[in-house]
Amino acid sequence: MSTVLTTAAGTIEETITVTEHATRDLLRLATAGSVDDGKSTLIGRLLYDTKSVLADQLSAVEAATLARGGGDVDLALLTDGLRAEREQGITIDVAYRYFSTATRAFVLADTPGHVQYTRNMVTGASTAELAIVLVDARKGVLEQTRRHATITALLRVPHVVLAVNKMDLVDFDEVTFTAIADEFTAYALSLGITDVTAVPLSALAGDNVVDRSMRTPWYDGPTLLEHLESVPVGRDALSEPFRFPVQVVIRPRTAEHPDYRGYAGRVASGVVSVGDEVTVLPSGKRSTVVGIDTFDGPLTEAHAPQSVTLRLADDVDVARGDVLVPAAATVEVGSDLEGTVCWLAEKRSVLGARLLVRVGTRTVRALLREVNARLDVDTLTVEAWDGVDTLHAVDATDTSSDIPPRALTLNAIGRVKIRLAEPIVLDEYATHRRTGGFLLVDPTDGTTLAAGMIGATLLDRLAPTSTDDDDWFAGAGI
Question: Which residue numbers delimit the Tr-type G domain (predicted)?
């Protein structure tokens, strides 16, 4: 199949087979920035310059631009698809964009810049391997910039691009760019982010987005697309220990397959081969992999992020939510979860609240035992709370007291302790990003309350863990 493709070097013609297209590298990335930093325009520029815009989409944007008074095509309209977004001129929801070049395919999570939608960045960045943080060259590093960098560090996104946008409005001044890049890099290092690439660009004019700009002769780094095409991807998933959360047990019981029993799911990390001995957690039962089945036929080996069905030698009890791990691995299993959460709901945290905790494909009942720390993003300090505070523990909407409760509110980042109704695999997020995350869900209406990371995170590095060991939920029946 012959096709015309656009790369950082321009438009070229190559012959690419369907197989080659399907097996090219995939980079998942997220964008973040303050309001009016030009994020939507940057994404629109990437889509437009890589020829990833369909003719009817471009026609619709041209018509919308004309309705606004004409002028150059407003590329921001390619991404601000909701009517409310276009009317307000800001992005208010997470949207996923797909585009590709000759060397790599991309899934881009476009997250809002407004402070009230910070929680949406957690959703967009949770699976990203690279984050693009936009800064307006006229404004520099803002509070929201630091907040996005902090979330990026918490979620352990391995690669960060600082896109210093609107350089055309500061006459492409090298000193301005260097000052912003140095300030952000220093802040990122304090968070533990070591891979930061700063790029001076103008999304509106296209400077250093796909094509190199002649207006920045002092800059010898890559364009944004050049960096996106060359940054390493998918390495961590293969190097991490094998994890296989079971999604469904397959038992067709047909005449052709009367005794077939397979365990379907996605390899979260690592590699598994036929003949490998595995342990089923949390039960601890052991068996051996005797088959790896896919829609296209059997395999001898599977790796992350492939979706496969595993067959085991023994008829062990395996159900949805169980996790298969290497038999020789030491994996923590328990009913007490401690971790850091980003609070996503309008309703604040309530001590003693009954929750659902979702880890991988497993959902268990739980109680929120403790909220013992909260991060101040502005000062990068942690307010540690000893013990627990039962103020407003029953009614989360009670604001009659002048004393604020020790609770997490919308967009807050804090440390919690949770008692689970049954044991689960407790992989630390710091070493198992793909299985160390969890969600807190309100069992009454299914609302997602918080997204969390198991084990020690940035908060534990910035402040000591509370030493109070009083378990005031002992005997609560869970």
Answer: 24-238
What predicted TM-score, i.e. pTM, was given to this entire model? 0.78
Mean pLDDT, consecutive 10-residue stretches, the chain (478 aa), reads 38 43 76 82 83 66 63 61 43 69 87 64 83 94 87 90 96 97 94 94 92 95 95 76 96 86 95 96 96 95 94 94 95 95 88 93 94 79 65 44 67 91 95 92 92 87 52 38
d(CA 141, CA 33): 10
**How far, in Å, CA of 16 to CA of 102, rounded?**
9
Amino acid identity, position 120: N
* Bridge partners, 14 (sequence order): 3
Pairing of strands 130-136, 159-165: parallel
List the Cα angle 31/229/178 in 5-degree steps: 60
237 found inside a domain: no
Tokens for 68?
Answer: 């606004």
What's the CATH code of the domain at 406? 2.40.30.10
Q: How far apart are CA 369 and CA 37, in angstroms?
A: 40
The two structure tokens encoding residue 52: 């990833």
- Residue 374 corresponds to which tokens in the numbers above? 């909260």
Q: Are residues 32 and 132 in the same domain?
A: yes
- HSE at residue 162, side-chain half, CA atoms within 13 A, is 30
Q: How many residues does the chain have?
A: 478
Please calculate the CA angle 206-138-51 and round it to the nearest 5 degrees. Answer: 15
> Domain of 366?
333-462
